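Journal club prep — side note

Before the paper discussion, L.F. wants everyone to see what a predicted structure for a comparable chain looks like in token form. Sequence:
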Amino acid sequence: MTFQRSESETIQLLRKLTLAPGAPGAEEGVREIVHGHLKELASAAISFDRLGSIVVEKRGLADQPRVLLDAHLDEVAFMVQSVADDGTLSFVPLGGWWEHVLLAQRVDIITERGLVPGVVGSKPPHFLTSEERNKVLSLERMHIDVGAESLQQAQEFGVQVGDPIVPHAEFIPMANPRLLSSKAFDDRAGVALLVESLLELNGLSHPNTVIGVGAVQEEVGCRGAGTAAKLARPDVGIILEGAPADDTPGFTASARQAVLGKGPQIRFADPTAISNRALVRWTQEVARRHQIPVQLAVRKTGGTDAKSIHLHEQGVPTVVIAVPARYIHTHVSLIHLDDFLAARRLVVELVRSLEASAVAALTPR
């Protein structure tokens, strides 16, 4: 199969999506990009749930089965909790952060008047006690400096309690240009898979109806996936993710299940969901037939929107397909472009294989 999208178009989409702000509960910038790319799909119906998730339905050769492609729009972020008299901000996390990666990093406060840059304050080493040098500073003891000299000046900048805060990042190719670095590949890699897979399927026959969901608030409890599933009414679910890569120092070769350049990860299980076994094996077989490299994973930690989707109504057979990403939940995650392209091909071929009898065979009758 020859894909319609060029690599340069894919890279530009990844750039736009990762650099867009999308804190949980404030995903409109990412949603607008998705809507802008998919609104011209022939005969597609676009709707929104009341939390802000976008649902794009495109009929293929049959009304059923209804095949759900889900990716979450949000990223790990923060929210302004209070503004001190000296103009510094206290903040709370939205999603999972490790305090070690935050000090002296740049952030963007998304105010009603526009973007306000800030820096997570840190002590110079000259002022640290020996005890402080050996401790991780808790987030509760950190502050954000927006350059304000007072509470009044911070308010004049437009900063208010409740404003979302996202990491400030660059999108850059590494010295190996197949590796790309930016914030939020969890889950903008999945969102880009969603967009490009739907665009590709628009020009191909598929024996089902495909429903793309850009879900909100995954990082704070997989909330949008639950409400969007009520609109999507899926018979089978494919969750598109940016999964933490484990090809870094400290992992033995035998323990690695998400290595950059080795293909997308098919996740069998994590603490929030066990994938449908028959669907995992079906996905592996599709990959084998089309010579797509994949990695199989069982994860001890983490979770995805499968948590909500597989419990919808009487249950939905689900599988997770993920692009491995090093250093997720930081400002500088890394993906391999070849893994993304392989994942896109796998998603398209998997959707095209899911006709009614195949989906019926996934569950007892």
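L.F.'s comment for the group: The radius of gyration is 21 Å. Keep this in mind when we get to the figures.
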